[in-house]
Amino acid sequence: MADRTNDPNQHVLVASRRQFLREGGTIVGGATVSAVVGGDVLADPLHGENLPPNVPEWMKSPGDPVGSQLYGTPSPFEKGVTRNIPKSGDPVFWTSSRTPLQDLDGIITPNGLFYERHHSGVPAIDPAQHRLIIHGLVDNPLIFTMDDLRRFPSQSHIYFLECSGNPGFKKPYGKTASDLVGLVSCAEFTGVKLSHVLQEAGLRREAKWIVAEGADAAALTRSIPIEKCLDDALLVYSQNGERLRPQQGYPLRLFLPGFEGNMSVKWLRRLHVVAEPVYSREETSKYTDLLPDGKAREFTFYMDAKSIITHPSGGQKLKSHGFHEISGIAWTGRGKIKRVDVSVDDGKSWQEAQLQEPVLTRALTRFRLPWRWEGGPTVIQSRAIDEIGYVQPTLSDLVGVRGDSSFYHNNAIQPWRIAADGEVTNAVGDFLNPHKNDDKNGR
User: Fold this and answer.
1) What is the rounded average pLDDT for all residues in the chain?
2) pTM
3) What are the distances in angstroms from CA 250 to CA 170, 196, 246?
């Protein structure tokens, strides 16, 4: 690099750089641009001594050696990217945490940021003493150790997992994408096909359901149709290449791709093969919906098509006019996402977004749309269409069908309001507030 310390033309170069920044700012919408003059990058002294042409502090001494951390951790500059835990006093305090969707890229959720939901705390299970029992309508009742299960052929698949109360109907008032739909995550799960293990036990002709029970203090129990058990159900022991974490069911969990998360029973200890469902607490008083006519929706296993824009989204702020990339995630329990449409004008018109490959069955799909913000207030939103042709509905459509007593399976379109100063907020309240114009958000 040339030495310009005593260069008489230095003031000219700095002045030229400032002019370039002023002109460039108009082109790129106010984004910061570095000037390159004669092969040198000139630093703005207002931005600190670590910018070129200075040598940054981290180049002046050796860094941490290999092995300084026995388990790798993120950069301290990313310490704010954590799971979203409800505040003390919240009804779900200590029972759930949400994935920070607005801070993530791609489709894979790191294990340390994967959402959690449990009903009686996280048990500390010794895998050497853990057993899986299969009994009931089988020819050969069996008890498996973890070593026994790992002897079966393994499979790895990328799937999403979502709580059916993500979010509830009554108060979808959260500020961020995490607050609203952070009870969804996506990972590569490794385990054994449940059908292989059931084959060892030998199902009887009367076998129609399997009751799965967890080894937590709540002994959470769900009835699962035999068709799903023989299709793609997995007995999972690893997630994203490492053994399950305790919050995710260590050492063994059931995994039912595309079904509501409560059915993928964690800390799995028992599979009872029966002729009829048992109508446990988690499939009667919970995880059912009261309809306007007094009837209840039950066994609503599948998670329907859903999407959310994660950037820009609530809690964020657009700092400049001009080009921005709208990005988000979409998913469906009924197969693959076929298309995602995005509206940048309050639902008046829609544009098809680009889907990032790979587009996998029952996995999160990342979508993107280039957008130029002119600086005026607007509402942006996305809607997903899956491969069976199902179209993500508006909240008003859902409430019109299910009434206002429903709670689970809210897969409504999520609108974000962008103010003139670039601040992004949740626009669902515009619909819920009776004093607002019903058509304001294009619903």
Assistant:
1) 87
2) 0.86
3) 33, 21, 5
